[in-house]
Fold this protein.
Amino acid sequence: MSYYSGQDKNFDVYETQESKFLTPFQRKVLLKNLQANLQPEYRRRIEIMLLADIGKSQTNICEIVGCSHEMARYWIGIAEAGMAHKWNERPIGRPKTVNNQYIERLKELVSNSPREYGYAFSYWTAQWLSKHLANELGIEISDRHINRLLKQMGLSTKKKSSQPQETAPSQDNSIKISDLQYNDESNFSWSFNLIQSK
């Protein structure tokens, strides 16, 4: 649990301490946002940066805020780099996963040519499907995951063969070695002629 919870509303400790790396404006913005009704993860980020700014060590911050050393190190680094204003730009938790809308749009794209969507190429690749859907729906997934989804749906980005898989009995067009005639004499003279011509 956070040391400076939203119920305390006691932010005087931040205002009385000298700032190490936050500008007065950044500090004011963080304090104002800290007073808002935030999700615990966002609150923790702000508290880490403010505590680091007043000189608390990483270990102290972890104890006060109740976070991992990795999390404290990351947000201390963000504050020191002068990017404290980005406290809410990094999403919380796992990345967005695909939903029904994503699946339906993926099916639609695969069943149509990329040229219909303004691309110069004729066949989709998983990488281009991923890029297109990220731009369109804002959900980024890897091309490997695209291939998994396509396989689950029984679809593929591979070009379908125009010939049916079942082959009807056809004529044997192969050449058999036994069809060739072998003449020892002509072969020997040919070899001999090569040697003489040198």
